[in-house]
Design brief:
266 residues, single chain, five-stranded antiparallel sheet, HTH-like, 10 helices, Helix-turn-helix domain-containing protein, AraC-bd, alpha+beta, four-stranded antiparallel sheet
Length: 266
């Protein structure tokens, strides 16, 4: 969470052209206006929301006779695009309409109030309201979605497997365990996974573990502690796998990072 606010704009109040480095969403509570993104113009009114993505050139201006009032919230996060994508929102589809404006407005109000009070834990509480807000948008964005084609279903299965591996990488993992947990046949899951990622599930798991190990090696943990943190019970085996993956032993990699901390190591 970065900030939240609301305003009744003046006639033809214009913002932009501008490019932001964070996500920003506005919801129109009254009046009208225009939003421009990716060389496309959108005419918006009460109940419409428009999303601004980092790096996109946008302009928005309120109507001359019925200037809009809106609420907004700005946020950042590595998974922001993922959450918005699940709601059917992207730079190519940045506008959504809702029939639950009262619910959205209430969430915006609580979010802004929480940030304004700045009490202990307000960041977590505001983050919770933001997730509820995005959840409302997800319901609106998916209400007219057509049934998924087979390719989309398979892609969803692979994405689910990726999320599972990303969360469980520090645990002992087998293909059989993952397939059983996710409810898929082992052979089917392995085939679809490699088809969509170019890697087998175990190769993908190794990549996750090694990239995580790179980060941990830049901290104070011992090699043994790093190995254990990324799912290796044997530090020697971890070192062999790390050297095979990175071309350097964990100790060599750590030394190189201390000498040149701006080298990300690949």
């Amino acid at each position: 969470m970065l900030f939240a606010g609301h305003a009744q704009t003046a006639a033809q109040h214009k913002v932009g052209p501008q490019v932001l480095d964070y996500h920003l969403v506005h919801t129109v509570v009254s009046g009208r206006g225009n939003f421009r993104c990716l060389h496309r113009d959108y005419r918006l009114e009460r109940g419409s929301s428009f999303f601004i993505f980092p790096g996109e050139l946008v302009t928005y201006v309120s109507d001359a006779s019925e200037p809009w009032a809106y609420r907004w919230v700005g946020f950042k996060g590595e998974r922001a695009d993922e959450f918005l994508s699940k709601a059917g929102i992207s730079p190519h589809k940045p506008v959504i309409s809702s029939e639950r404006l009262r619910r959205l407005t209430a969430l915006y109000y609580q979010l802004e109030k929480t940030l304004h009070l700045a009490k202990p834990g307000c960041d977590m509480q505001a983050g919770g309201y933001l997730r509820l807000l995005l959840g409302e948008y997800a319901q609106d964005g998916m209400r007219d979605e057509v049934p998924k084609e087979e390719g989309s279903v398979i892609q969803q299965q692979v994405e689910q497997a990726i999320r599972w591996l990303t969360l469980q990488y520090y645990q002992p993992i087998s293909i059989e365990q993952m397939a059983r947990t996710l409810g898929y046949h082992r052979t089917h899951l392995s085939k679809m996974f490699k088809q969509h990622t170019g890697l087998s599930p175990m190769q993908f798991l190794l990549k996750i573990r090694m990239e995580r190990a790179k980060l941990l090696l830049q901290g104070p943990l011992t090699i043994e502690q790093v190995a254990s943190s990324v799912g290796f019970g044997d530090a020697l085996y971890f070192s062999k796998q790390f050297k095979k993956y990175c071309g350097h032993s964990p100790s060599e990699y750590r030394h190189d990072q201390q000498v040149n901390p701006y080298d990300c190591g690949g």
